[in-house]
User: What shape does this take?
Amino acid sequence: MTAMQNLFIDTETLSQNLGREDFVLIDVRGAAAYSSHIPGAVHSTWHEYSDPASVAKGVLNPDLSQLEQRLRTLGLNQASDVVIYSNPFDNWGDEGRMFWMLQYLGHPSVRILDGGWVKWVAEQRRFEHEIVKLPTGDFSVNAHPDLIINKDALKKLVRGQHPNTVILDARSVEEYAGKEIDGLPRAGHIPSAMNISWNQFLQPDATVKPREQVRNIFEDHGLREDQEIVTYCLGGVRAAWVYCLLRYVGYDQVKTYPGSWWEWSRDFAAPVEKDVKLLHKVTNLEQKKPS
Assistant: This one.
């Protein structure tokens, strides 16, 4: 798969395409937020596609036929043009998770609304309140295993030398360093992982920064196009958002670990590292901030 120059769609182009029969717009915000939505948008969140047998919420349902059926009930066809949107300032990159999943499942035409609900409302564009149901679609899953990595494969990778593979932790620097979080058995990060926080890529109007600026952030961390990049976070949502941004600027060997820290921290055979000096530094900075 190659870099996607047209990964994002702007609000004006979306507005002109509303009402097209071969167009499926997916609102991935919470159910309460969907009570006001872009006209014609169906509603679906990433939780609906999680493995019901897994404690870790981020693990994708391994039954691809169930995923296919759920997407068909949204009205997804093989020939649909799909656009995903959220409120970029009020989630963890949920639109990225849906984008990554649809790419993994092999849908040929998926884009994200640049600026999402924030920009749509700021431009005073129309919206509606009714729940939207579309006719059942005919989408057929054609999975791309090169876009996903599971826990066992990642454990094997971490145990050996992997000079051509970068593990990228998309969480906050505090989480990466080892801040204790309720509900998680262990804090820290996957050994050898670098940290590029997911929340530094948006402009004040909720649109993504220009391609060159996004690319510079990755290059400043030493990422190269010839490397394989594995993204993870807490539950595979922020990681999938960073996956999108990497693909957007030309990195085409990117995969996501959907189970992420929720799953990894629960497996005591999975190695964990902390950065005590970094944690001390960021904790002190937090305490010095004026309240």
